[in-house]
Design a protein that fits this description.
The chain is about 70% helix and about 0% strand. The protein is mainly alpha-helical and about 130 residues long.
């Protein structure tokens, strides 16, 4: 068994020029590879990874979609933001005004009719909190 491990280390060190064949070097390299993979998985599947937009309007809208999905209101991929808003108006009248306001704010900020501001951020945080079931 030890002979096989030594052969693997020597074979690996021959693949990458400049890498020493010491087990410590190879363990360090393996540790970096594993940390990179774990970091990628965390980024990909965490809530931070889900919203890939630096645009706060998009991030707020995506957060609203996640909250509503947990309540059984899922936006179909082919629907526009306004089509989804109409769906919510039909299915959940009690939250429709909030969804309408968030959607309209998102569209105005996203498509250039208004600049995103601190006031929008504060308002969105408040409205998103109101959407969560108590």
């Amino acid at each position: 068994m030890m002979l096989h491990a030594t052969q693997s280390v020597q074979t690996f060190s021959q693949l990458i020029p400049g890498i020493s064949s010491s087990p410590l070097t190879l363990l360090t390299l393996l540790a970096f590879i594993i940390m990179g993979l774990v970091g990628f998985v965390i980024w990909k599947w965490s809530p931070v990874g889900r919203s890939r937009s630096a645009d706060p309007a998009v991030a707020a809208y995506e957060r609203m979609l996640r909250i509503l999905k947990k309540q059984g209101l899922t936006k179909k991929p082919q629907w526009t933001a306004f089509e989804f808003m109409q769906f919510v108006e039909e299915q959940a009248k009690h939250i429709a005004p909030i969804v309408k306001d968030i959607t309209q704010t998102y569209c105005r900020a996203r498509f250039g009719q208004q600049q995103w501001s601190k006031d929008y951020s504060d308002k969105m945080q408040y409205q998103l909190a109101m959407l969560k079931p108590t």
